[in-house]
Amino acid sequence: DGGITQSPKYLFRKEGQNVTLSCEQNLNHDAMYWYRQDPGQGLRLIYYSQIVNDFQKGDIAEGYSVSREKKESFPLTVTSAQKNPTAFYLCASSKKAGTLNTEAFFGQGTRLTVV
Amino acid sequence: AQSVTQPDIHITVSEGASLELRCNYSYGATPYLFWYVQSPGQGLQLLLKYFSGDTLVQGIKGFEAEFKRSQSSFNLRKPSVHWSDAAEYFCAVTAPSNTGKLIFGQGTTLQVKP
Fold it and tell me: What whole-number distance in Å separates Cα of residue A72 and Cα of residue A4?
């Protein structure tokens, strides 16, 4: 079945460490996205990528980095510069920008806790 | 600025009662509109979507929503709520040119009383 796989489901990190969250999709989608979810704040866009080897900052990119070396994969690194990294992270994908009448699909999320 | 407002943070309804969740948006052009549902610790599941045409759209699980351009609203409704509908509901908007770049409301948590 086609879908988006995020791993791991739960992740614990010590302060000062970088950590990478995985996101893989087999929907043949060109565009991929990372969102952060905090209680009472909805979801906020961190980074997105419309095509391989290209990505753009979203609304809250500081302290995060991404890469897009393959169409299927869009890993997110939470760096030690991120002041408050504990959150629920959601990955999404959609068809090529400009494709009409289409929507985004979401993975099951990764809960990151800084200990 | 583009934004989505869900005025009700928390709603409690009795099982079998009707439900309406409100969503208002501020957007420069005609947007695509969505309602997603999220169970605790899970990802987002699409309930329904509006792209164009008929302003009353039907979704999964018996939900429907009506787009009212004059009121900049996209309220979600269900005639009879089931206990399994208890979850968090998110309204979102996006431009047709980039459908994954969503602007979300803060969410409404639905509690269902037996």
Answer: 9
